[in-house]
């Protein structure tokens, strides 16, 4: 049976529906306790969920920067004339793509293929693939900068006596720094030379996938080369677009910290109030999100990172001297927010095409 784009769209849609059901059935608390947590959140749930309208908007602007750069490159080379893609279409694909990423194991197995499939209707298969891969790389690249900068925020807060510092913590921070520096090197190689062909060759070393990898390389050799050339071209030919996209992605991570800050304020945790107190609360939120996302991405093969995100929130909040009960509350409300946005993203697949 030939898989048409409509059939694939339906497959992604039902995959998302199944994920929501699984997520609802695997909460670590009863529905009565869940309702109590939601009642505790009250009207604060509106800004907690609503801030993601802004976060996804910033993500869409970052991706749009890459897409426009690719389209300008095509027009400059005279290879094709690509119509302008509206921000709202990119925004829609951003939300649906992340909804599928939340819903599937190994984050990009749902969202990125869906984005490529849909975007190819506008700018062709190879340009869509390179744009989506570049954006996915930028998304993870910004994560590493987020984690890297959080080390120095922690050290600054430790220097003023706000957070503890000892040999174990210093060792852990050192490991994270080395981890980020290695990642920066790998990403720099990928941005300069492309990486898709290398990934396909690497897959050939996985037991059972060698034959598929060799056949795929032989069949799509020219396409893989073109995609890698387009990936390398962004950094080589349009550094302004590259750094603008990176800055926007990093900014979205910073804005995401406000979600946790709203929940800390809900519990009356404002570090003394006033501007300095709110700033300190925001920096604590920054560190909580940083540690939790690092923990979740290291074990990102679990569907919806079930249990991983919750554990990350509890550990990171406890590390700042706050109660484990607060960590559980934050993790549950964030899980509810994810479900709400997964539902929105899945519905957008059918409502807006």
In terms of DSSP E residues, the strand content is under 5%
CA gyration radius, whole angstroms: 21 Å
From the spread of the alpha carbons, the general shape counts as globular
Low-pLDDT residue intervals, each spanning 5 or more residues: 301-305
**How is the main sheet built?**
none
Supply the helix-strand structural class: mainly alpha
Helix content: over 70%
Number of strands: 0
Number of helices: 14
Can you walk me through this structure?
The radius of gyration is 21 Å and the shape is globular. It is built from 14 helices and no strands. The protein is mainly alpha-helical and 353 residues long. The protein is 82% helix and 0% strand. The chain has helices at 5-25, 31-41, 45-77, 87-103, 108-123, 125-159, 167-193, 196-203, 210-219, 221-237, 239-266, 274-298, 308-319, 324-351.
Essential attributes:
0% strand, 353 residues
Briefly say what this structure is.
By secondary structure, the protein is mainly α.
Topology summary:
Blueprint: H1 5-25, H2 31-41, H3 45-77, H4 87-103, H5 108-123, H6 125-159, H7 167-193, H8 196-203, H9 210-219, H10 221-237, H11 239-266, H12 274-298, H13 308-319, H14 324-351
Helix pairs in contact: 1-5, 1-14, 3-4, 3-6, 3-11, 4-5, 4-14, 5-6, 6-7, 6-10, 6-11, 6-12, 7-10, 8-9, 11-12, 12-13, 13-14
């Amino acid at each position: 049976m030939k898989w048409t784009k409509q059939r694939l769209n339906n497959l992604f849609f039902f995959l998302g529906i199944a994920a929501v059901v699984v997520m609802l059935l695997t909460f670590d608390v009863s529905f009565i306790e869940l309702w109590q947590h939601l009642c505790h959140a009250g009207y604060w749930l509106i800004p907690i969920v609503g801030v993601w309208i802004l976060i996804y908007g910033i993500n869409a602007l970052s991706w749009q920067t890459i897409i426009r750069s690719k389209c300008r490159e095509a027009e400059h080379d005279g290879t094709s004339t690509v119509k302008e893609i509206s921000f709202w279409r990119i925004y829609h694909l951003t939300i649906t793509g992340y909804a599928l990423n939340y819903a599937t194991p190994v984050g990009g197995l749902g969202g990125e293929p869906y984005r490529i499939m849909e975007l190819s209707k506008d700018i062709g298969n190879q340009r869509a693939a390179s744009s989506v891969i570049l954006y996915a790389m930028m998304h993870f690249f910004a994560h590493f900068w987020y984690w890297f900068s959080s080390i120095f925020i922690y050290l600054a807060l430790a220097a003023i006596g706000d957070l503890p510092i000892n040999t174990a913590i210093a060792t852990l921070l050192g490991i994270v720094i080395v981890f980020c520096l290695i990642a920066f090197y790998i990403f720099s190689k990928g941005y300069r030379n492309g990486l898709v062909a290398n990934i396909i060759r690497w897959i050939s070393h996985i037991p059972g996938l060698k034959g598929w990898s060799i056949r795929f390389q032989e069949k799509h050799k020219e396409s893989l080369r073109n995609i890698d050339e387009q990936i390398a071209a962004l950094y080589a030919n349009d550094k302004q677009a590259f750094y603008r996209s990176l800055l926007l992605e990093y900014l979205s991570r910073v804005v995401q910290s406000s979600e946790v800050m709203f929940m800390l304020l809900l519990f009356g945790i404002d570090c003394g109030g006033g501007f300095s107190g709110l700033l300190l609360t925001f920096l604590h939120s920054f560190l909580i999100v940083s540690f939790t996302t690092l923990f979740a991405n290291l074990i990102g093969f679990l569907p919806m990172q079930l249990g991983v995100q919750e554990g990350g929130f509890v550990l990171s909040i406890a590390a700042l001297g706050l109660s484990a009960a607060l960590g559980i509350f934050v993790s549950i409300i964030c899980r509810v927010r994810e479900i709400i946005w997964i539902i929105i993203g899945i519905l957008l697949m059918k409502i807006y095409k």
